[in-house]
Amino acid sequence: MNKDTEKVQRIGNILVDGFHYLALFVIGATIVWSAAYEYLQMMGKGYAA
Question: What is the pTM assigned to this prediction?
Answer without folding.
Answer: 0.72
